[in-house]
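Proteins fold reproducibly. Take a sample protein:
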Amino acid sequence: MPQDPAERRVVVTGPPRRARRAPGHYRARTEIDEQTTLGHTYVRSLMRSQLRAGLAAFAVLVLLVGPLPLVFAAAPEARRLTWTVLGFGLYAPLVLLARWYVRRAERNERDFVRLVEDR
């Protein structure tokens, strides 16, 4: 005997769901989104590591650029020395410093993502 169309069951399929965690367990991303104290601590640790990298790069920059007026004052007539120091003695270390800083900042962010992700 055929079934009435109103009595038919509809089956909905979809991707399998992950098992739920215990109610007391929160993910770090949720902590950050909800701006809890723990989430604030996570973000603050990232900010501190980025600040440390920035201050280290700034300190090296000051050590590179700071003594230049003294070098130029010691030899006021040596224009070639001035351009040589600026072109080769300063530019290459600045590029290396910038490269180090970018790599360090990206590594800090990768470490933070690993900390926050649920794996």
